[in-house]
Amino acid sequence: MRTLIKVMPIVFVLATIMSGCKKDGTIVVKNNTHSTYDVVVTDDMNFMAYKTIAPEGSDVLTSTDIDCYFGFVATQKDGYFEHPQVVNDVKYLPKKGSISFKIESRPAYIKYVNITSDNYQVDITCAANSTIKQITLPGRTLDSLEVEAGYSYNLKFTQLDGYVLYPSTREYTVNADCGYIYTYETPNLVKSENGGEIEEYEY
User: Fold this and answer.
1) What does the DSSP 8-state code read for residue 40?
2) pLDDT at 132
3) Going by C-beta distance under 8 Å and a sequence separation of 6 or more, which residues neighbour residue 74?
4) 7-30 burial by CB neighbour count: b if 16+ within 10 A, else e?
5) Whole-angstrom Cα distance, residue 107 to residue 17?
6) What is the Rg, in whole angstroms, of the alpha carbon atoms belonging to the chain?
7) Which of 5, 93, 117, 161 sits in a 20 to 30 Å window from 13, CA-based?
8) By C-alpha distance, which of 83, 82, 99, 102 is closest to 43?
9) In a domain, 9, yes or no
10) Domain containing 153: what range?
11) pTM beyond 0.70
């Protein structure tokens, strides 16, 4: 019994020391994309952290600053063409609580416009991510396709009717970045008086 009485104060002191060393807040950063991101996490007091998060990676930060809001900025380092994705978020960290910031890749959009009165076929392909999409686009209409960002796509217009000898075609390469809309048009056909096709031009 005497031995137990002597040990208990020691255990109490160790527990007090350990609890005093424990950080009060936990911040989890998760990268759910195929790109690397530079991350800055900061609050309005004295905490600031800079991290580089690998694709599909994560990191855990701890802070003694609690009961305040944390700002989060993640900037894409690779896997884009001209415009890196920037992710912004703000979350409140309670005492002894945990918050999580997630990086998700936004899609890109390819918009295709038929500016003629003829029907066109639209083919959108990308071998790198196995995209194969074929659409019939009636005259004077438009449509769009959501695509995975970070890839190059081939867009081809092929005239289906209204031509004399050969259908008009036009091809584009679309380098798709997160959150951007890319708009492309069919050839604008000039008709002769007898309805024949005499010229193609762009605006």
Assistant:
1) E
2) 97
3) 29, 31, 37, 38, 39, 40, 53, 86, 87, 101, 103
4) eeeeeeeeeeeeeeeeeebebebe
5) 49
6) 29
7) 93
8) 99
9) no
10) 108-194
11) yes
Q: For 46-138, where are the E strands, in sequence order?
A: 48-53, 58-63, 68-76, 86-93, 98-103, 108-113, 120-126, 131-137
In a domain, 5, yes or no: no
Phi, psi of 170 (to 5 degrees): -155, 140
How does strand 25-31 pair with strand 98-103? parallel
pLDDT of residue 32: 98
96 and 112 in a single domain? The answer is no
Residue among 169, 122, 164, 163 nearest 141 (CA): 122
Greatest alpha-carbon span in the chain: 114
Q: What is the pLDDT along the chain (203 residues), one digit of tens a residue?
A: 444 444 334 333 333 333 344 457 899 999 999 999 999 999 987 889 999 999 999 999 988 878 899 999 999 999 999 999 999 999 999 988 999 999 999 999 999 999 999 999 999 999 999 999 999 999 999 999 999 999 999 999 999 999 999 999 999 999 999 999 999 999 986 655 555 544 343 33
**Number of compact structural domains in the chain:** 2
Provide the β-strand partners of residue 146. 109
Q: Are 102 and 74 in contact (CB under 8 A)?
A: no
Q: For residue 189, what pLDDT is reported? A: 66
Cα 121 to chain centroid distance, Å, stands at 29
Report residue 139 as tokens: 């005259």
Helix, strand, coil percentages (3-state) for the chain, rounded to 5, are 10, 50, 40
